[in-house]
Amino acid sequence: MRLFGFIPTPPPLRPKSNVYDLKARLDWGEPALTIIDVRDRSEFSTAHIQGAVSIPAFELVGAALAHLELERDLYVYGDTDEETAIAASQLRSAGFLNVSELRGGMPAWKAVGFPIETATLFAA
Fold this sequence. Notes:
About 35% of the residues lie in helices and about 20% in strands. The chain is of the alpha/beta class. The chain has a single domain, classed as 3-Layer(aba) Sandwich (Oxidized Rhodanese, domain 1). The strands form 2 sheets. A 5-stranded parallel β-sheet has the order 1-6-5-2-4. It has a two-stranded antiparallel sheet with strand order 3-7.
């Protein structure tokens, strides 16, 4: 049976997401999102979520404002939920409208075996 008028859409962005939400969004294709790793660059170089950009917490707001649209869907993560929540709050306060905290951060992503990569730095 064919459905007319059905247009597939990605899973909605939520203020807090789990790793399965982000993976589903990436698997949807053409995701129109940015994944931001707020850990320090040495941790990022060791391993990060595939496709993520490195913007350490101390330069987050300035770099994000310089390089990203305020309406862009952003998934933010660190090593802890507290680190992630602080970063997301800073982005929201700076005017970013679509920010999601990736619960469990890098440890959760690695624990389920989702793709990681090494050493791709974001020039701020």
